[in-house]
Specification:
The protein has 317 residues and is an alpha/beta fold. The chain has helices at residues 3-27, 89-100, 105-114, 121-133, 138-155, 160-175, 205-218, 235-246, 259-272, 290-303; strands at residues 193-199, 223-227, 250-251, 277-281, 311-315. A five-stranded parallel beta sheet has the order 3-2-4-1-5, sandwiched between helices. β2, α8 (235-246) and β3 (250-251) form a beta-alpha-beta unit. It is elongated, with a radius of gyration of 38 Å. It starts with a helix and ends with a strand.
């Protein structure tokens, strides 16, 4: 073999060796499993995934539970999953009665007092204290005891069962079952009914407003809440929390702003969204504060520029 023959042979050998090394380096070694281009390997197969998304194997992501609710203005879609669906009013009343069924300490205490052999002045004082302890109120408790004493004196009875009947009659007379306690929010025309919630500081006006919203939502009514308590810290946020729970919009204003303006905007929003009820929460105030009472009158007058106020609810403790 001549010189050129040797040169060509050596060159061919070198080319083969270089090609072999390149193949081994690119494939990850002699033991590397071959891969098929354009296909994503199963996890743990030792092959890397390709960047070709068009050929990637489809994987199903875990699904997030959603709630199918009607659209509500002012409620972000992300918050829909946290909205509660209140039970109907009838169910709520049944649950309330079942809970009150176990609260017989007051009745048992009164029956024990009325069952004594002799009902003297000390016994009547204890009866009055028991009624006051049950949050009946000092004036009302005194009135009930005075009426009961007069009836016992006139009827000249000491029978515990008869005394129980007389006490029940006196308590029912104070409650007045015939009094209309329904909220007049129906038959107000095409506009929404407007409910204004007022009361003394710390009596639970904002909580009452939120609970009323739950009742109306359970009755399939569209509700708008107005956070017109612009003075108490976090009052608007507290009402917002109630609104978010049941999925109703809350109209808010700046802290320390004009409450009449917030009430006006809430009623306006209720009219524009064709809501059924607008409930306006106000700041607590005492009747002895003339300036605050005048402000409350302003809130009502401003609301009535758009719609009459159908109900004014006074929340008391």
């Amino acid at each position: 073999m001549d010189t050129w023959g040797w040169v060509i042979a050596v060159a061919v050998v070198l080319v083969v060796l270089v090609a072999t090394l390149l193949v081994r380096f690119k494939g990850g070694g002699a033991d590397a499993a071959p891969t098929q281009l354009g296909k994503r390997q199963a996890p743990g197969s030792g092959a890397s995934a390709t960047d070709d998304d068009s050929q990637a194997v489809d994987t199903e992501l875990p699904r997030v539970a959603t709630v199918d609710l009607p659209d509500q203005p002012g409620i972000p879609p992300a918050d829909l999953a946290t909205i509660e669906r209140p039970t109907p009013t009838a169910g709520r009343m049944a649950r309330l009665r079942s809970r009150l069924a176990g609260s017989g300490a007051l009745g048992q205490g009164l029956l024990a007092l009325l069952s004594r052999d002799t009902i003297d002045e000390q016994t009547w004082d204890e009866i009055e204290e028991t009624l006051i302890g049950a949050d009946l109120g000092v004036a009302v408790a005194s009135q009930v005891v005075d009426h009961l004493r007069d009836r016992v004196r006139v009827d000249a009875t000491s029978d515990p069962e008869a005394l129980r009947v007389l006490l029940r009659q006196e308590l029912l007379a104070q409650i007045d079952p015939g009094l209309d306690r329904s909220l007049h929010v129906d038959d107000v025309g095409v506009r929404p009914a407007v409910v204004l919630v007022v009361g003394v500081n710390g009596t639970g006006k904002t909580t009452t407003t939120g609970k009323l919203a739950r009742v109306f939502v359970a009755e399939d009514r569209d509700v708008v809440l107005g956070a017109a308590d612009t003075f108490r810290a976090a009052a608007a946020q507290q009402l917002q929390t109630w609104g978010d729970r049941v999925g109703v919009p809350v109209v808010r204003g700046p802290e320390g702003g004009d409450p009449a303006s917030v009430a006006f905007d809430a009623v306006k929003a209720g009219i524009e969204t064709e809501a059924d009820v607008v409930i306006v929460d106000t700041a607590g105030r005492l009747h002895t504060k003339a300036g605050l009472m005048d402000e409350l009158g302003k809130v009502k007058r401003v609301i009535e520029k758009q719609s009459p106020v159908d109900e004014v609810l006074l929340v008391l403790d």
